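User:
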Amino acid sequence: MCRVDIWRNGDAMSVSSHDYRVTLRKTFFAGTAITALALLSACGGSGGRGPIVSTPTPVPAPAPAPAPTPPPTNFDTAELRRSDGPGFHGAVTAYSAGATGRGVTIGIVDSGIDRDSPEFAGRIDPLSADFAGNGDFNDVDGHGTQVALIAAAAKNNVGVHGIAYNATILALRADDQTNCTDMERDSDGCGYSSTAIAAGIDRAILANARVINLSLGGKGTAFSVRQAINRATSAGIVVIVSAGNEGDVNDDPEVDPSNPNRFAAGVQASGNGLVIIAGSVNEDRMISGFSNRAGSLASFYLTALGNRICCVYKDGELLVETDAQGRQLVSVVSGTSFSAPQISGAVALLAQAFPNLTGRQIVDLLLSTGDDAGAAGVDNIYGQGILNIARAFNPRGATSLAGTSVSVALSNATGTTSGPMGDAGQTRQSIETVILDSYARAYSVDLGNSLTSAPIENKLTPALAGGMRTMNALRGTSRIALTIAPDNDGSASSTPMSLSIGDARQAQVLAGSVVTQFSAKTAIGFGISRGADGLVASLQGKDEPASLIAQAPRSNFGFAKSSDNALAIRHQISDIGMTANMERGDALIRGYAAFDPAQYRPQRYRYTSSGIAFDKSWGGVKGSLGLTILDERETVLGGKFNAAFGGQGATTVFVDADGRFDLGHDWQAGAMWRQGFTRPRSGGALANGSQLVSTAFAFDIGRANIWAAGDSVFFRFSQPLRVSSGGLNLNLPSSYNYYSMQTDFSIQRFNLAPSGRELVSEIGYGRNIWGGALSANIFYRTDPGHYQSLSDDKGAAMRFTRQF
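Assistant: Predicted structure:
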């Protein structure tokens, strides 16, 4: 459907996105012409009978399109800014992905095309033809050329360019100039024969067109046209038809502007679900006054820009006139005739970018991704909304790794690193791979960009958590210790305790625990909401500095955890002590996709651990050697990754060695080392060879009874658990062939060793005074949390505790 606005010299200028715009215009409406030969005008149409369903011979699949020319990095050119449509409808997203319409044929049944225009040079299909007895498909009316410009004008830095600027144009001329009067040419335009239209549609099938544009209309659809539409859509060709320009016509009782005109309705009824009816909106995204509304065909109706479309060409060049005041003016056009090719161009972009798509899928994509306009959802004015090419190009539905059944939800993070991985999550390592959406469209994505880093642990505040109450009991050979603190709601909850310096405080170390001596050689300890490390330390008689920040390597697994329960059994075999332990609980992960920032509640993932340790004393030397096996159900050393990246959990083997040395004169020294080997469980894209190696250590020296009996001072230097090497080996799709549906894979290494290394130095002093305990600590942390970019963390704390 067409409506042509002719801009005249002498009109006032207006502010506009175009270089050449005026506010006043003289508008010509093209009317309807129905002759005895059943002619259809470019803006009108004839009646017809119902469709006949036929099954045409299947059209051979098109050959693979040539590889697209690498697109320029910047599409914001003067030509694009003059072009109404590409920017408005988000086509730049398609261009950036390499889609230009190259290799895709757009069949335009209209008044032909200006075959000499440089805008179409080399891109007019040799099967283009005239079907109305004019002898040539060269356009003398201008309407077909204008439609072709909007759909596929070249991107040549001259004038404007079309939506699919590299598409091939199949010009199918159907206007009858031979039987057209001068009056018809000046007003409604020449008529279009139903026979010629049907023949043009059949030629489009022969030429393997992916889309047919019908910027035509009228009061009905001829039987021959219905049959041709059925044949085309049965062959998978998408048809775009103008809704009509009868929106502001109220004097014809046969016209219902609240619905698409009868020609469009007839085409849709014969189209096997592959027809989109094109309405028009203006640059303010409001329905054009002249446009027929969606009405009862809202489910198949999509709007596109059809108001004041730049520009008219003459002799292949942009027509610019200069008025008496020296102003440069251009002609622009309006009508649903010019919203239809916007959508046809979008079909060509999708067909080139995703050659696997069927016509039905393309129609579904365009209709389901329109921008909502008017009433929420599908409505009887805007139908499915306004064409949005960018949304149509984005992945839709569930996504998975190409060639696999491994789901990859792009809305979720790739994963969250843990404390031992430090800043590995900030390095933005590239993990290029190929995914398929629910339409089996292939996308190249970098999953490394969505990896997040674990929050930096604030070590001082938890160490100084106040409000704690410690209750101890000793009966016979059993010790019971509980530490409670008020929650925000006033209730009591268990709070972990740090190791103390002497045996006198061992009950406080075993907060929430029970230790029973069964015999002279055997003891057993139970922990309730406590880890096994404290139980083991108690049973072995560990005597370590009461540090706040510099932790003992064996004190954690590198991640925050909530232990359900723990068990440790120690048995003395001659002069060697053997301690077995087990623990189970939850790893507390913050920052993953499921993390709830409003409640600040981490997600919980199950873990279990079991271990055995041997200790022995040699005079003033106490040493121990232990082995711990950590089994994580869904995490990898505290890191949480999606299923494709090792979300099936991991097994870690920790080897621990430590020694305490009595140096005499109340001096003690200690050294501790932890070495970890983590193997993620296979699954998803995780390949063989994935392993993490981690280390932690601490060295300390201290003296007791310096200035007062029972006081002590210590210095400790430590490194928290840190991934020293290793990562994930990922067998990921690297390419996908639409025609063979074959996927190539390659191994990518995802390094989880941080560049930073946290080192902690801490000095502490403690003594009993005023019926309580006074302690003072000074610490210095470099690269906190193994983040190289963070400033050093330093601080001091003084604490006084007393039992009441």
